[in-house]
């Protein structure tokens, strides 16, 4: 059975796909020690670009419909999108595809939709799906004002589920102003307050992840 990691975010639009794709590519291209890693985006809402990026990062090893088995067109939470489309999210299909990928590949990098408590169905959250997958959880947090509160809440919620949060990765989703006090201080403050590792920061426009991150997924 393969290893892997579940990537969640402090919010939507924090760069989960960017980090997931970079991690898949880093694992696959690690020279002679390269890992057969693939991306998995169980549920897409709105455009399918996130899944397409993960499929590309996976080097063609997985078909797009296996990378992303459930695609809902409205750009809202999965539960809301499913209601708009008059359907329910096929969680059984998601489970089936995850099981297949994990059996066939050395590492599966799973990207959740939105944040940790985003609803998938009336009584089923993204956190419930992560608990079923039982993978270590990485939190991607956008380095901007408000991230300290969002990060601490997300990590606490993950730990309350009994899951292992392997750490937090700060991500610059836009080029910061030179005098942005929040961006300049968030890393140091989170480093003091978190009881999980702060794994570093992805600078806006960077193409590489902190080296320690690749080791967490295998």
How would you characterize the overall build of this protein?
With 218 residues, the protein is an alpha/beta fold. It has a single domain, classed as Rossmann fold (3-Layer(aba) Sandwich). It is 40% helix and 22% strand. Strands 2-5-1-8-9-10 form a six-stranded parallel sheet, sandwiched between helices. Strands 3-4 form a two-stranded parallel sheet. The longest helix has 14 residues, at 91-104. It is globular, with a radius of gyration of 16 Å. The termini are close together. The mean pLDDT is 92.
Secondary-structure map:
Elements: E1 3-9, H1 16-28, E2 37-40, E3 43-45, H2 49-57, H3 64-67, E4 70-72, H4 78-85, H5 91-104, E5 107-115, E6 119-121, E7 124-125, H6 126-133, E8 137-142, H7 147-160, E9 165-171, H8 181-193, E10 198-202, H9 211-215
Helix pairs in contact: 1-2, 7-8
Précis, in short:
The chain has 218 residues and is α/β, with parallel strands linked by helices.
pLDDT below 50 for ≥5 consecutive residues: which ranges? none
Give the overall average pLDDT: 92
Total count of helical runs of at least 4 residues: 9
Briefly note the CATH topology name: Rossmann fold
Structural class: alpha/beta
- What amount of the residues lies in strands? 15-25%
CATH superfamily membership: P-loop containing nucleotide triphosphate hydrolases
- What is the gyration radius calculated from CA atoms? 16 Å
CATH class: Alpha Beta
Q: What's the story with the biggest beta sheet?
A: 6 strands, parallel
Principal-axes shape call: globular
Distance between the termini: 11 Å
Q: Give the SSE string.
A: EHEEHHEHHEEEHEHEHEH
How are the strands of the biggest sheet laid out side by side? 2-5-1-8-9-10
Number of strands: 10
Helix proportion: 40-55%
- Whole-number count of domains: 1
CATH architectural name = 3-Layer(aba) Sandwich
